């Protein structure tokens, strides 16, 4: 239990530290409007991180999530807006492709890293076909939802909390979640008990696809237009988010709440660096440094735990 | 919760009936012409040396393997040998505990209970699973104190094995009627193993059946009502347990085992050299000495070994003259490279030692492997095939060769004989003794008394500390037990 607690405490602590830093540098951020501005871009990142988490949970890795989210954003900004039936059918089809990809990876014993890398070019090409130049527009309801101003707590806070709690309930508490994590922990044991690992992997990938779609839609809701390269950075951000949130690359050890917090931490790190007036040339490097720092701290703790 | 609950004790129909079963993997015949009936209330002991086909037999019974020929009947029902046998086996209440642990280390104990329980009621399943595991753990291993909410990865290997056994005996919608235990006591110490044996007797008395596979003949004789002896994929003896004696059983298995007087001799004549190892906890070893680490499982022996090994091997660059080599007990975790061939697995330790240049000397590597293949009789025709094509005992032989091939003066062994058959054990004992005579020092942690009796000096561990140091004629089972408790 203690190890699990530690796993979740560290991301919370690092998010808190960064938030304190931001508030210290820019006290005006400590408001409804300020928080919304700080975190609203965290919503699509959090959704993409959850998608990545579903894949990491079954011991695979998804290098196509960034281009997939871009593709979904392009579909949302064009077809969903102009021709909803075709648009939603395309998004559903994309989820089905994701599930099929999981099934094929398992059935043929292919390395996920290669298949998803290949698929990333596919999604990227599709996105450019749909939207050769930046443009499109968000469906009105989506825009309204993302820009809504509920009393007291901004959407940018409510959405991650809701996503984190729902996924926590699904992954950590439900039977299906247990089986999916079991695939990551010891797929042979799952197979021996008569479950279809193929089906479970397809399910995990399908859910990842669903969250990729949601991420693309949320992104369009915020930016109101799309671009074929809009979410390329999400691939690495999502992996970093899962790891930052206490997940591991193998062994089915993931934490949905941690992943959401990890995504928020990464988004906040960018803002924090801007408030420091750091030149944007250095920002990505500095973001990487923050990531390494947090992971190093985690390593120190888990090592100590293992020795104790 | 009670769905499809069958009455235990349908005396007339066998739970499983195999006739003329044959299984081939390509050109390899793993089983041929196997016939076996298991009635309710029986405890069938299955013995045979490594690679005799025991695990394959288990997989046919629990339906995971479709036999190439012959037929399997569950509860007397006609059934073709097809892919649905797994489901039929589950319906018949057949459950298995496998040789290598098959729990998910990232899940809690109760979540692991969920995995084999296919049709678990959805409402409040966590609470139900927790209480079911708790009840079963208490029934099989009274006083174990394992919390169902703990993550399996945090449990000791003995506790994991207890959890796995308890899950196999737990109550579900279809009650357990035949439980297959493959080397269930390999990581358990004596008193816990006795609890299990007592529970098996109770379970069989109530009409359940058990297939008990073990290399520990004492346990089999204690618990089995019928013996099945396997050799080279065939059942060569199948009779009531009381018709066998220890010797006749070993004879039937086809191994000539040296008599008991043999163990521990060769201990006295040897001249021991200078002290080569001294650790903070008082553990010492001299050149050419076989030092045993005894005591109940999980009392700090493995940690002491790891510390000894890491202190001497944590170097930034590979060394042409390593100070110490390690033989792993937990093969899957720290021994075998599952994707590599037997050859690569065997030569791993000595790659740097034996190559003269930057590149691997493939010729020397091949020669080394051919030597050891012959010397330790690894059961394969082709050392280029995958390591996983070998049975557990033969994999362990490869790991032994890997370490012994090195020139390191100290060999650290972490209970390496887990699940290895009697014949192989004797061969390895002899090799260890020979190597010791040449001046090598062995640090040997073992949960088996026979192995500790092979040692020149024994440190008995209790609560991570050395409770006693025994030498010469003081090394007896009695003294060890006294120091352990």
What distinguishing features does this structure have?
heterodimer; A: 308 residues; mainly alpha; ABC transporter involved in vitamin B12 uptake, BtuC; 78% helix; 0% strand; B: 485 residues; alpha/beta; Rossmann fold; six-stranded mixed sheet; 17 helices; 34% helix
Layout of helices and strands:
The complex is a heterodimer of chains A (308) and B (485).
Chain A: H1 2-25, H2 32-39, H3 42-57, H4 65-82, H5 84-107, H6 112-130, H7 140-146, H8 155-173, H9 175-192, H10 197-223, H11 234-244, H12 256-275, H13 280-307
Helix pairs in contact in A: 1-12, 1-13, 3-8, 3-10, 3-11, 3-12, 4-5, 4-6, 4-10, 4-11, 5-10, 7-10, 8-9, 8-12, 9-10, 11-12, 12-13
Chain B: E1 16-25, E2 28-38, E3 43-47, H1 54-61, E4 69-74, H2 85-91, E5 94-97, H3 109-114, H4 125-140, H5 157-169, E6 178-182, H6 190-205, E7 209-213, H7 217-223, E8 226-231, E9 234-240, H8 246-253, E10 275-278, E11 284-286, E12 290-294, H9 301-313, E13 324-327, H10 331-334, H11 342-347, H12 351-354, H13 362-376, H14 392-404, E14 410-414, H15 422-437, E15 441-445, H16 449-452, E16 457-462, E17 465-471, H17 477-484
How many domain regions of chain B?
Answer: 2
Globally, the shape of chain B reads: globular
Low-confidence region ranges of chain A: none
**The CATH topology of chain A:** ABC transporter involved in vitamin B12 uptake, BtuC
- Mean pLDDT of chain A, as a whole number? 90
Helix segment tally of chain B: 17
The fraction of residues in strands of chain A falls at under 5%
Distance between the termini of chain A: 14 Å
Proportion of residues in β-strands of chain B:
15-25%
């Amino acid at each position: 239990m203690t190890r699990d607690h530690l796993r979740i405490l560290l991301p919370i602590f690092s998010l808190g530290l960064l938030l304190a830093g931001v508030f210290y540098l820019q006290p005006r951020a400590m408001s409804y409007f300020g928080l919304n501005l700080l975190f609203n871009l965290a919503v699509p990142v959090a959704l993409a991180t959850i998608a990545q988490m579903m894949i990491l949970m079954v011991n695979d890795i998804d290098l196509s999530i960034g281009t997939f989210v871009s593709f979904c954003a392009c579909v949302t900004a064009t077809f969903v807006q102009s021709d909803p039936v075709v648009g939603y059918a395309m998004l559903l089809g994309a989820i089905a492709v994701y599930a099929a990809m999981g099934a094929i990876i398992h059935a043929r014993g292919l390395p996920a890293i290669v298949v998803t890398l290949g698929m990333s070019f596919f999604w990227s090409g599709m996105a450019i076909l749909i939207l050769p130049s930046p443009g499109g527009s968000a469906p009105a309801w989506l825009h309204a939802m993302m820009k809504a101003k509920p009393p007291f707590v901004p959407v940018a806070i409510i959405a991650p909390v809701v996503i984190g709690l729902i996924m926590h309930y699904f992954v950590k508490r439900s039977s299906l979640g247990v089986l999916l994590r079991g695939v990551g922990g010891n797929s042979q044991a799952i197979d021996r008990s008569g479950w279809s690992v193929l089906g479970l992997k397809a399910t995990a990938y399908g859910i990842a696809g669903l969250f990729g779609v949601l991420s693309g839609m949320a992104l369009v809701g915020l930016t109101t237009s799309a671009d074929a390269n809009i979410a390329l950075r999400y691939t690495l951000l999502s992996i970093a988010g899962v790891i930052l949130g206490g997940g591991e690359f193998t062994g089915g050890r993931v934490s949905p709440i941690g992943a959401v917090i990890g995504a928020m931490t990464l988004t906040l790190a960018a803002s924090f660096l801007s408030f420091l007036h750091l030149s944007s040339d250095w920002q990505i490097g500095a973001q990487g440094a923050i990531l390494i720092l947090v992971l190093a701290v985690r390593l120190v703790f888990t090592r100590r735990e293992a020795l104790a | 919760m009670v769905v499809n609950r069958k009455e235990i004790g349908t005396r007339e129909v066998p739970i499983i009936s195999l006739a003329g079963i044959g299984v081939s993997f390509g050109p390899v015949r793993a089983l041929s012409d196997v016939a076996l009936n298991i009635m309710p209330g029986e405890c069938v002991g299955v013995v045979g040396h490594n690679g005799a086909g025991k695990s394959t037999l288990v997989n046919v019974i629990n339906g995971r393997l479709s036999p190439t020929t012959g037929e399997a009947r569950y509860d007397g029902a006609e059934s073709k040998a097809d892919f649905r046998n797994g489901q039929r086996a589950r319906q018949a209440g057949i459950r298995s505990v496998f040789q290598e642990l098959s729990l998910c280390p990232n899940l809690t104990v109760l979540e692991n209970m969920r995995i084999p329980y296919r049709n678990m009621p959805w409402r409040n399943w966590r609470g139900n699973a927790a209480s079911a595991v708790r009840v079963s753990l208490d029934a099989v291993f009274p006083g174990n104190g394992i919390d169902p909410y703990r993550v399996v990865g945090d449990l000791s290997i003995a506790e994991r094995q207890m959890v796995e056994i308890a899950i196999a005996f737990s109550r579900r919608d279809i009650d357990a009627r035949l439980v297959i235990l493959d080397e269930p006591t390999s990581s358990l110490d004596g008193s816990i193993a006795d609890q299990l044996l007592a529970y098996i007797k109770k379970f069989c008395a109530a009409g359940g059946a058990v297939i008990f596979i073990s290399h520990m003949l004492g346990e089999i004789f204690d618990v089995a009502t019928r013996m099945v002896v396997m050799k080279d994929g065939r059942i060569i003896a199948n009779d009531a347990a009381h018709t066998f004696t220890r010797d006749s059983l070993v004879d039937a298995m086809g191994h000539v085992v040296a008599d008991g007087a043999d163990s521990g001799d060769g201990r006295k004549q040897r001249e021991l050299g200078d002290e080569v190892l001294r650790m903070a906890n008082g553990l010492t070893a001299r050149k050419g000495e076989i030092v045993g680490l005894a005591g109940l499982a999980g009392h700090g022996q493995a940690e002491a070994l790891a510390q000894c090994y890491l202190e001497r091997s944590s170097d930034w660059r590979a060394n042409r003259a390593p100070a110490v080599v390690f033989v792993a007990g937990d093969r899957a975790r720290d021994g075998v490279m599952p994707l590599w061939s037997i050859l690569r697995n065997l030569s791993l330790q000595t790659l740097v030692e034996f190559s003269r240049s930057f590149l691997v000397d493939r010729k020397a590597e091949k020669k080394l492997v051919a030597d050891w293949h012959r010397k330790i009789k690894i059961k394969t025709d082709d050392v280029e095939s995958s390591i996983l094509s070998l049975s557990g005992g033969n994999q362990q032989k490869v790991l032994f060769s890997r370490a012994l091939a090195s020139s390191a003066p100290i060999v650290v062994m972490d209970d390496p004989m887990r699940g290895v058959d009697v014949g192989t054990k004797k061969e390895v004992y002899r090799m260890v003794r020979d190597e010791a005579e040449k001046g090598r020092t062995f640090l040997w942690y073992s949960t088996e008394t026979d192995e500790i009796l092979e040692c020149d000096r024994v440190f008995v561990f209790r609560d991570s500390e050395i409770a006693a140091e025994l030498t010469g004629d003081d090394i007896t089972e009695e003294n060890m037990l006294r120091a352990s408790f």
